Amino acid sequence: MKPLIVLNWKNHPASWKEAKELFKATQKAVDKSRSLTLIVAPPTIYLREIAAGYKGKRIAFAAQGVHWDEEGGHTGEMTVAQAYDAGVSHVLIGHAERRARGETPDDTRRLLTAALQHDLIPILCVGELERSHEGEHFAFIREQLRIAFSDVSPTKMAKVIIAYEPVWAIGAEEPMSPREMHEMSIFIRKTIHDLYGKVGLSLHVLYGGAIDHRSAGQMLGLGDVQGLLVGRASADSEKVLSLLISLQRVK
Ligand code: PGA
Questions:
Q1: How high is the mean pLDDT of the chain?
Q2: Residue 79 gets which letter from DSSP?
Q3: Phi, psi (5° rounding) for residue 172?
Q4: Average pLDDT score over residue span 40-57
Q5: Is residue 249 predicted with pLDDT exceeding 80?
Q6: Positions marked catalytic
Q7: Phi/psi of residue 63, nearest 5 degrees
Q8: Is the Cβ atom of 210 under 6 angstroms away from ligand 1?
Q9: Does residue 159's CB lie within 6 angstroms of at least one atom of ligand 1?
Q10: CA of 96 to the centre of ligand 1 (A)
Q11: Which of 161, 178, 184, 209 minimizes the number of CB atoms within 10 Å of its CB?
């Protein structure tokens, strides 16, 4: 399977001119890279124009966040239908930075259902705030998954991508170790297997948190993941190129 690399630009860059340059550099980087699926999630303000101007086939687009209501009084939000209309195929749901601003587990449940109704592929982000020796983070992740998926049918479940992003690794110096990710991947698949049966075994799981060209290959090779969710490094053209090139060696 081709690795899935999601570039979450968050609120970068500061101007439209820089956004165009970053996207151009990202395009060049993907043309030099191995076969992989690249998804770019620009800030909403740049999204439509970037997606409309892209004529290639190697990059797809994701919305960083949406509201589940079809329409209504949600100042500052974008609806799922508007995101679809702007040219995205994927949407991030439950990113830690949105959860920190009030997106609840119940909201992730509504968002998953709304995204699937509009044929967008949800990238559901889960992750614990901290770790303890007692392993409470496993129960925490199970609960985030259980609530988010409570309205999703097994057939639709197969479309969802899960991004495990331990909150303590987002913005940190170093990512979690691939060995720990391997353990978490097995846990996530088992949890979905318990809830939905064998679809859990073929699920796509991504890792996110402090990934760059130094850690991407190892995580992809040893972490039992099908891809990566990249934050800071995705907003720096040179780092994007180094990261994609570093994956060349991963089997
Ligand atoms: P980071 O962020 O790569 O900057 O740690 C990851 C994310 O928030 O998705």
A1: 95
A2: B
A3: -85, 175
A4: 97
A5: no
A6: 95, 165
A7: -85, 145
A8: yes
A9: no
A10: 9
A11: 178
Instruction: Look up residue 175 and give its amino acid.
Output: P
Looking at this protein, which amino acid is placed at residue 19? A
Judge whether 211 and 179 are in contact, CB under 8 Å. no
CA–CA distance, 200 with 196 (Å, rounded to integer): 7
Ligand 1 close to Cβ of residue 171 (< 6 A): yes
CA distances from 55 to 40, 58, 126 (A): 14, 9, 32
pLDDT per residue over 135-159, tens digit each?
899 999 999 999 999 999 988 999 9
Cα radius of gyration rounded to whole Å, the chain: 17
pTM metric for this prediction: 0.97
Which CA distances in Å does 249 have to 206, 212, 214, 221? 19, 15, 13, 9
Determine contact, residues 142/191, Cβ cutoff 8 Å.
Answer: yes
Rounded to an integer, what distance in angstroms lies between the CA atom of residue 232 and that of residue 169?
A: 12
Tokens of 43: 């800030």
Helix residue spans in 72-210 (DSSP H): 80-85, 96-99, 105-117, 136-148, 154-157, 178-196
| Angstrom distance (rounded) from CA 155 to CA 245 | 35
